[in-house]
Automatic annotation (TrEMBL):
DNA ligase that catalyzes the formation of phosphodiester linkages between 5'-phosphoryl and 3'-hydroxyl groups in double-stranded DNA using NAD as a coenzyme and as the energy source for the reaction. It is essential for DNA replication and repair of damaged DNA. GO terms for biological process: DNA repair; DNA replication. It comes from Geoalkalibacter subterraneus. Residues 525-601 form the BRCT domain. Its EC number is 6.5.1.2. This is DNA ligase (NAD(+)). Residues 2-393 form the NAD-dependent DNA ligase N-terminal domain. It holds the Pfam family OB_DNA_ligase. Keywords: DNA damage, DNA repair, DNA replication, Ligase, Metal-binding, NAD, Plasmid, Zinc. It catalyses: NAD(+) + (deoxyribonucleotide)n-3'-hydroxyl + 5'-phospho-(deoxyribonucleotide)m = (deoxyribonucleotide)n+m + AMP + beta-nicotinamide D-nucleotide.
Length: 601
């Protein structure tokens, strides 16, 4: 059973998983799969639509030499930022918006008109024109902290999702060009675009008599990158001979008169020498690619991690594959390009702990060790439990030693006395004392109890949302068991289903903790009429976390950004000019210094 021989299947599965809030690929991995293929939009519930004019994509240029070769003979160029968004077309008939579609494979795309109407979009044009506007669907960089994923992937995920999400209101369509049945000159097209689209939502461009040098283009790129409110990932260069000549209708999927110029992030080329598998929670085996060591950014990189078995299978990442690896700054190195896929193929791995051959998960994405007696899996499970408790004195190797001595469950470990532990190899009186004392001091929140059931996608944050809804854990368990879970904001059908069927696991964890004498701190839900405040700058004597706690005790909820729901902005300097202060002034929100605020409370 090998589900992922084609990369489209994995992209489809990954999109679905992302829309359900359980991403299975990292952003660079998603890009790696999407890079070479045009068939990213494979969500089958969308209606496919044929494009009236093909929507091409651009070939890439990465160095000065290729640029001058390509630009040779051009008497003029138009240069603009390459916006890092999702390519779409907005089709207007007699000045009314009739259809919005994704690029898809350039010939057919997906009809996303419904979701697009929830975005920032003009339903009408100032004139009764019939034409299409090519756009990049984008979210401003200032909203990046609201999402865990690269904004382009967020946008395509939401536009393609079955149900509209509230965050679609943040999506804007940046106009790039007009395509129409009527012949127009390049100059007329540019003028018309600026006339019918909001200036702010039109991608800027500069006209040059000749092609500028690679360095000049890089300078433009850097200045746009810094000042543009949306992410850009290169520069688009279009060459022309006469701005006032009629433009031929575009029919090519890879137009020759336009290229994308890209900078930096050069990948180091190397070869995959071996693949190791790491055993994780639920018996999941995660691949670690051993590569021929390469020097990147002054450090030697010899291994690269990857999310799952299916990614390797779909991208041809096996022993012998020639790949481009990227690492910049603090990010973990990852495979950016596959130059030559592996000829050896990829076998289903064996568990590094018990050597049993793995099985594939029902989705085909993960390789799993399904041996119930696997000692490695037991260890991973216990280590996750102890990570959750956060005890300094009980390290990974302590747990390993306890499991090796046969104490392989929480119950067994909690029943050990100081002398039991001191009698084990490698433990002294002192460490035995610390361990037993720490075990008896463990205290967890109710949200952590929910997390400890390790239901996919249900962590502490989701746990807190559930507790806020139900009040406390006992009520939550009883209510879900008796009546089933009602729809709660932020929980999709998959997670609701998961909780309805697996609520027993959370109950078991709660009972286990109580029987072990672990103190479970009752949940305190924020008051229903809590006021929202936003904070900027540092508060004297309080960390951000302490500040949040103090405010919560006073009945305030701390928001991460200034919105009209805020009643107050706290800051270190009320005369300052930070973006939060500027926005608060614009919205007429009261501004107070931390000093004033805490003095008068
Ligand atoms: Zn195993």
């Amino acid at each position: 059973m090998d589900l992922f021989d084609s990369k489209d299947t994995l992209i489809e599965e990954a999109n679905k998983a992302y829309n359900q809030g359980n991403p299975v690929l990292t952003d660079p991995e998603f890009d790696l799969l999407a890079e070479t293929g045009l068939k990213v939009d494979t969500r089958n519930f969308r209606t496919k639509v044929a494009h009236p004019f093909p929507m091409g994509s651009l070939s890439k240029i990465k160095d000065a030499e290729s640029l001058s070769k390509w630009a040779k003979g051009a008497t003029g160029t138009i240069i603009g930022p390459k916006v890092d968004g999702a390519a779409v077309r907005l089709s207007y008939r007699d000045g009314r918006l009739v259809q919005v579609a994704t690029r898809g494979d350039g010939v057919t795309g997906n009809d996303i008109t419904g979701n697009a109407r929830n975005c920032v979009v003009s339903e009408t044009l100032p004139y009764p024109l019939t034409l299409e506007i090519r756009c990049e669907a984008v979210i401003r960089k200032c909203h990046a902290d609201k999402f865990e994923k690269n904004l382009r992937n967020v946008v395509s995920g939401m536009l393609g999702a079955k149900d509209p999400r509230p965050e679609l209101a943040l999506v804007e369509f940046l106009a790039i060009e007009i395509v129409s049945e009527d012949p127009l000159t390049l100059a007329a097209k540019r003028d018309l675009l600026r006339e019918i689209c909001m200036k702010e939502l039109t991608v800027p461009s500069v006209i040059y008599d000749q092609a500028p040098s690679f360095d000049e283009i890089e300078e433009l790129f850097n200045s746009w990158k810094q000042n543009f409110p949306w992410a850009i990932d290169g520069v688009v260069v279009e060459k022309f001979h006469d701005l006032h000549a009629m433009v031929e209708k575009e029919t090519e999927l890879l137009p020759k008169h336009k290229v994308a110029v890209k900078f930096g992030n050069e990948a180091a080329v190397t070869v995959i020498e071996e693949i190791d598998w790491k055993l994780g929670q639920h018996g999941k085996l995660t691949p670690v690619l051993q590569i021929r060591p390469v020097e990147i950014d002054g450090t030697t990189v010899s291994k690269v991690s990857a999310s799952n078995y299916a990614l390797l299978k779909s991208a041809g990442l096996g022993v012998g594959a020639e790949v481009g690896v990227v690492k910049s700054g603090d990010i973990i190195p990852y495979v950016k390009e596959v130059h030559t896929p592996s000829q050896e193929g990829l076998d289903i791995p064996s568990c590094p702990s018990c050597d049993t051959q793995a099985t594939l998960s029902s989705t085909g994405i993960d390789a799993l060790c399904s041996n119930p007696e696997c000692e490695g899996a037991t260890l991973v499970r216990l280590q996750r439990q102890f990570d959750l408790f956060g005890i300094d004195f009980i390290s990974g190797s302590t747990i390993e030693a306890l499991v090796a001595a046969g104490h392989d469950s929480l119950e067994k470990i909690f029943s050990l006395s100081e002398s039991d532990i001191a009698a084990l190899d490698g433990f002294g009186r002192k460490s035995a004392h610390y361990i037993v004392t720490s075990l008896h001091k463990i205290e967890v929140t109710e949200a952590k109890v929910i997390k400890s059931a390790f239901l996919k996608g249900i962590g502490e944050r989701k746990g807190t949302a559930l507790l806020n809804h139900y009040g406390n854990l006992d009520t939550m368990i009883a209510t879900i068991k008796e009546q089933g879970m009602t729809s709660i904001e932020g929980f999709g059908p998959i997670q609701t289903d998961l909780l309805n069927t697996q609520i027993g696991l959370i109950e078991t964890q709660l009972q286990l903790y109580r029987s072990l004498g672990i103190k479970v701190a009752p949940h305190t839900a924020p008051a229903k009429d809590a006021k929202t405040v936003c904070c900027t700058g540092s508060c004297p004597g309080k960390s951000r976390k302490e500040l949040k706690e103090v405010l919560a005790e006073m009945g305030f909820v701390m928001a991460s950004s200034v919105t009209k729901d805020c009643c107050l902005l706290l800051c270190d300097d009320p005369e300052g000019n930070s973006s939060k202060l500027t926005k608060a002034r614009k919205l007429g929100i009261e501004i107070k210094s931390y000093e004033d605020f805490f003095e008068n409370q």
